[in-house]
Write a structure and sequence with these properties.
The complex is a heterodimer. Chain A is α/β, with parallel strands linked by helices. Helix content of chain A is 64%, strand content 8%. Chain A folds into two domains: 79 residues; 234 residues, no CATH class. In chain B, the strands form two sheets. A six-stranded mixed β-sheet of chain B has the order 6-7-8-3-9-10. The chains are: A alpha/beta, B alpha/beta. The structure holds adenosine-5'-diphosphate and magnesium ion. Adenosine-5'-diphosphate binds next to helix 1 of chain B.
């Protein structure tokens, strides 16, 4: 349906002697341009066309909206095809009161997705995610930014309590175990170094990554998996929207952004947890803090930060990937959630090991 | 049968799931502004055919051209553009379950139109009114009946004024009145915008009223069992199986 637009859409109102509002419309009406606004007084109106060159749904929609409350509407001089489109909406909305009998529920058997080639599909999914990211950077991807904001909240802010609790306990346990050893050599003051170094380099990122797998990967796998079941992902594709760009990208971005922040938070809470144990008998608060600050270098902070970015990505990606290949059944969605958590945690630990080797090579 | 001005053609198309072929040797062509009905017994592959014709699934063989683009040869962007210019109603409606009906219709508009929010809202309300859902706009898909979901799905398929609309059993779950109005809507869309419509339906009266052509998928032979204007199927003629399907369904 291509047409050369000639002139912007316009609408003019005047009041006739008998009080009827006369609205003159014209120009080329297209969805992609701003439509005129009018104010109509009274409940009688007549619409006439003047130089109306072309229209798509925007015109019947505009007429329907602006004249819904007019009791006597005369559109008899408008093109017939336009009249019928306006009347159709009026008619349908006035006698829609009767109810439908419920439609047949779609029964979704578990049509198996072939199990082989799952690695190929995993790489395929990563490839598409990367491609989507590049398209987003040049502004050519359809991304659901509403989802992005929502996920910042649910995967980030809402995780604060559990991250705080687990971070705190991790620091506390490390201090407790550390003290048992350090007391034997009379070096209890180094418990601050132990806890703060371990939290910044390792445990802050690791704990947060694992929490993200438990909370977020599973949630994403079931969200995307059930959208698969109800053909919502198909519906997106049918609209010319790439589901990876629209659904996975905002989730992966949100989590990759939030996990590092949560990890920093967990790190500080953990160091605080260690302090509670250390200062309960062996050290003064001052001693603990000076030792801790001395132990943390920018390098170790950077190591933890880089890792947490990677862990956030892995957790979100695992959920989106498992969800998008979920079998189309209730069982399939459950399996997707389980396998997302397993995949996420496994990858996080594997990458943690790889990072250890790499950082060692670069002497970080 | 093949004409370059045709908006949809397929030659030697084979469709199925995984490696199982359910229909093959499918040849069809449709001129712009025509209405094609796909009929056949349940499970014969009507939905599968629609998905292949609309470019949603890879066919198992053959060639499909939609709006002048060879779907198998199209790259990602081209295919996305084609998909955007066509509307699709899924058999299960497939509304976005976390969005209200209004938001479901507005979603594609927001993504693809540069129109201001107010105009998009107005357009979405109009499209919902067209299918008689003016009063259910703020309901979630879980709060409406199957027939209402179908109608909302139709409104979403029409959201961007597509040149081609695929409707998979649009009238299933609708009461006779709504179903009659749907026929009228389909005819008016075609009349007003020259929209090409491909639909799956089991309702012979509705097919007779709306469709220009009808294709019968025969599960016994695994290919097309009859093709032509639906009125022709009512007369006992060269395809007895199709004739039986039409007349039996009519008096059921
Ligand atoms: N996702 C799927 N995976 C495997 N087989 C399928 C799938 N969807 C449908 N089928 C099978 O394909 C055949 C055709 O289905 P379908 O096209 O939905 O039929 P119709 O729409 O004509 O009722 C049926 O035998 C059905 O069991
Ligand atoms: Mg079907």
């Amino acid at each position: 349906m291509s047409h050369a637009p000639t002139g912007l859409p316009f609408a003019r109102t005047e009041v006739l002697a008998d009080g009827t509002a006369l609205v003159t419309i014209g120009g080329a009406w297209e969805l992609n341009q701003p439509l005129p606004s009018i104010v109509i007084k009274g409940d009688r109106a007549k619409v006439v066309a003047e130089g109306l060159t072309d229209f798509d749904s925007s015109l019947p929609a505009w007429l329907y909206d602006n004249f819904k409350n007019i009791r006597q509407l005369d559109i008899s001089t408008l093109p017939v095809r336009l009249q019928s489109l306006v009347q159709m909406a009026e008619k349908a909305s006035s006698d829609h009161a009767q109810s439908d009998h419920a439609g047949l529920l779609e029964t979704f058997g578990s049509w198996g997705v072939e199990s082989g080639g799952s690695w190929a599909r995993a790489f395929d999914h990563i490839g598409h995610t990367a491609l989507g990211f590049l398209k987003m950077l040049v502004g050519r991807a359809k991304v659901n930014w509403g989802d992005f904001k929502l996920q910042l909240q649910t995967s980030g802010v809402d995780a604060l309590p559990i991250v705080a609790l687990l971070g705190f306990l991790t620091g506390l346990i490390m201090a407790y175990v550390g003290l048992i050893q350090l007391r034997q050599v009379g070096a209890t003051v180094y418990v601050a170094n132990l806890v703060s170094l371990a939290m910044t380099r390792e445990m802050g990122a690791l704990m947060t990554g694992i929490i993200a797998c438990g909370r977020t990967s599973t949630a994403y796998a079931s969200q995307l998996g059930s959208m698969n079941v109800s053909q919502e992902t198909d519906a997106l594709r049918a609209l010319g929207i790439n589901p990876i760009e629209y659904l996975a990208l905002p989730r992966i971005l949100a989590v990759t952004l939030m996990v590092p922040l949560l990890a920093v938070f967990a790190t500080f809470i953990g160091i605080f947890g260690g302090m509670i144990v250390a200062c309960a008998g062996d050290l003064s608060i001052e001693q603990y803090l000076t030792q801790a600050i001395r132990a943390i270098s920018f390098k170790s902070f950077l190591v933890g930060f880089i890792k947490s970015i990677a862990f956030g990505f892995i957790a979100a990606w695992a959920g989106c990937y498992r969800g998008s290949v979920a079998k189309r059944s209730a069982l399939g969605v459950g399996e997707a959630a389980t396998s997302a958590a397993v995949l996420g945690i496994t990858f996080i630990v594997i990458f943690d090991a790889i990072f250890a080797v790499i950082f060692n090579l670069f002497d970080l | 049968m093949n004409d370059t001005s045709d908006i949809l053609t397929c030659t030697g198309l084979a469709i199925g799931h995984g490696k199982t072929v359910i229909m093959d040797r499918l040849n069809l062509s449709l001129a712009p502004g025509k209405i094609l009905a796909i009929v056949g017994p349940s499970g014969c592959g009507k939905s599968t055919l629609m998905r292949a014709l609309g470019g949603l699934d890879e066919p198992l063989g053959g060639k499909t051209t939609l709006m002048g683009v060879d779907l198998a040869a199209a790259d990602g962007q081209q295919r996305q553009d084609i998909l955007r210019q066509s509307g699709f109603l899924f058999q299960g409606a497939a509304l976005f379950s976390s969005l209200t009906l209004r938001e479901n219709i507005e979603m594609p508009m927001r993504e693809f139109l540069k129109a201001p929010r107010k105009d998009i809202r107005q357009l979405a309300e109009y499209k919902l009114a067209l299918v008689g859902l003016a009063d259910a706009m703020d309901k979630l898909p879980s709060e409406i009946s199957g027939g209402m979901a179908k109608r909302a799905g139709i409104a979403r398929a029409m959201a961007l004024d597509p040149a081609v609309i695929f409707l998979d059993e649009p009238s299933a779950g609708l009461d006779p009145l709504s179903s009659g109005r749907l026929d009228e809507l389909i005819l008016r869309l075609r009349e007003a915008y020259g929209t090409t419509i491909i639909l799956v339906s089991h309702e012979i009266p509705s097919i007779l009223r709306t469709a220009d052509f009808c294709v019968y998928l025969d599960p016994d032979t695994g290919t097309i069992g009859g093709y032509g204007p639906p009125k022709g199927f009512l007369q006992a003629g060269n395809s007895p199986k199709v004739h039986a399907f039409f007349t039996q369904a009519r008096f059921d």
